[in-house]
Design brief:
Layout lengths: L8 H6 L3 H9 L5 E7 L2 E4 L7 E2 L4 E3 L4 E4 L4 E6 L4 E4 L4 E10 L4 E10 L1 E6 L9 E5 L3 E5 L2 E7 L3 E8 L1 E6 L8 E4 L2 E6 L3 E2 L3 E2 L2 H10 L6 H8 L6 H9 L2 E2 L8 H4 L9 E16 L7 E8 L5 E3 L3 E3 L7 E2 L8 E11 L3 E20 L6 E20 L4 E9 L5 E3 L3 E4 L4 E2 L11 E9 L2 E20 L19 H10 L17 E2 L18 E2 L1 H4 L4 E2 L9 H6 L8
Parallel strand pairs: 9-11, 25-33
Antiparallel strand pairs: 1-4, 1-6, 2-3, 2-5, 5-8, 6-7, 7-10, 8-9, 10-13, 11-12, 12-15, 13-14, 14-17, 15-16, 17-18, 17-19, 20-37, 21-28, 21-34, 22-23, 22-24, 22-34, 26-27, 26-32, 27-28, 27-29, 29-30, 29-31, 33-34, 35-36
Length: about 575
Amino acid sequence: MFSYRTITIALIILALPASTLIYAAKRNVPIGAVVAWSGDVFVYHQDEDVGVTVSGIEGVFTNDLIVTTGDARAKILLNDDSILSVGEESRLEIKEFSLEEEKRKRFAHLKLLKGKLRALVARRFSGKGSKFQVETRTAFAEVRGTEFIISITEAGTEIVAISGRVYARSASPSVPGVVLLEGGSGTTVRHVWSLDKPVSVPEEQVTQLFDDTSMPVTAMVQLKESGCVGCHLETFLEMNKQKFIHPGAKRDCRRCHIKQVKTGTEKKISMVTSTMDSMVFLDVDERLTYSVRIRVRDSSGKQAVSSELRFTPETVSKTMYNDNTAPTISDFRVEELRKGIFYSASLAWDTNEHSISTLEYGFPGASLIQISNDNQYVTDHRITVGGLLPGRNYIFRAISEDPFGNTSRSEGLTVEVKVPFSSKIVESDAWPNVRGVRVLKIGQKTALLWKSNKKTTAVLDIGQAVERDERSRGGPHWPGFAEFQFRGIDACLSDGCHKGRIHRKTSHPTGRLTWKKAKKPVDMPLYEGDVMLCVTCHTPHSGDHKFRLRMTELDLCTACHITLMD
């Protein structure tokens, strides 16, 4: 449900016992580790007849077999942040596992030979060929980002989806078709080679399955695994019963319910260059956690805002390395020559990597002047210079320097300042967006990258953020619950969700109303007696009416506007 990368496999490797490290030296690095266990749990490595008795954090590799005895259980954290909870008297084989973060690709193939397995597949990978599947003797279950429980019983294989979507099919080619399971539903793939239709799973059965695959673990792993559903299972099961579910209700409870604490150090950084591909260095402390949003604006004034990105510089693993090659400058051109009291010229060029834009210009044979946008690295460059004299020839040269100081210069471009002109630039009417936002390390510096679907300027809103999910700071609800007004209206407008560009925007007034033309609803929530909220008319999690209205549209309107009944 959540992607809290509190525990990384790199840190876990440091805690592995000597036996695992010796085995790892002969193989590749572990693809995960047993991070919690109870009773007798054994890990059988490939080509080794004797299993390793788990007595501490134990690394697991492709082709390993994990075995639990009658009173034992185990939790396995994989490199992709997925968590496997292995029940009692179970046998799980890691048949294949590969992870390519840069290509957004993950392939996992597990085989449950006996017992029960609960899989929390916490992240989605969109790369071609990505798959996460669990196999039994009779069935296959495939997911992308969800939680499900798979059990081997006397009847066959039972598969229950807790959240998200699970695709189930028979292991026999003679049984065609795929069954789609959504939260709260399940199916049985029987030994007689038949595939049952999805059915709603009773709450008692789901709870029992949770109990069969649960065990106390360290707080960080428990938070990473369970999130809110660990304590609020009934709420999640109740949501599954409703026809219309809010798309964010299961993914990020904290956005609405938990306060977002900032330290008061927020600042705005303006990016004046209009570009589609940007990178800037950030002046940040390695040990602090930061929150950043990017606001972009196109030439017509349309704006877009990115989602909040949180990062701690010392934990950033993505790195850009020095290729010792200068940027390649291409398509150096004059886009516009404008006449005023003096002339001005706009010159543009492209590079094959992010670099600083510097323009060198002046009279041929004389000392040249340089102007630069020295805080923004881009791949599509544009600089305007003014104060040009009419009737004179100027020489222009583009200079681009990458983050490592590798520099290239274009050939000189001679321009006669005489006839004004402007290259016709056709700009899309599409609303701008912000995508590809990521943080990486360049040497000892921290850099932020983002892209837009069209040329935009940008403003970065960045500040120190206090992590609200640290158990060490008082539990999962630290620093406290957001007040009702925030949960009822402000959270709906955060990140631009209901401002008309992403989801439906309502014209109905909200906020503090006079209630002169309508009566206050008796059984619908208001704040402080007269503040109209989004949740006054809509249920926040799920509901049986379209748009999650609290009642039919007519009943809802007439609850306040009684004149509509006449």
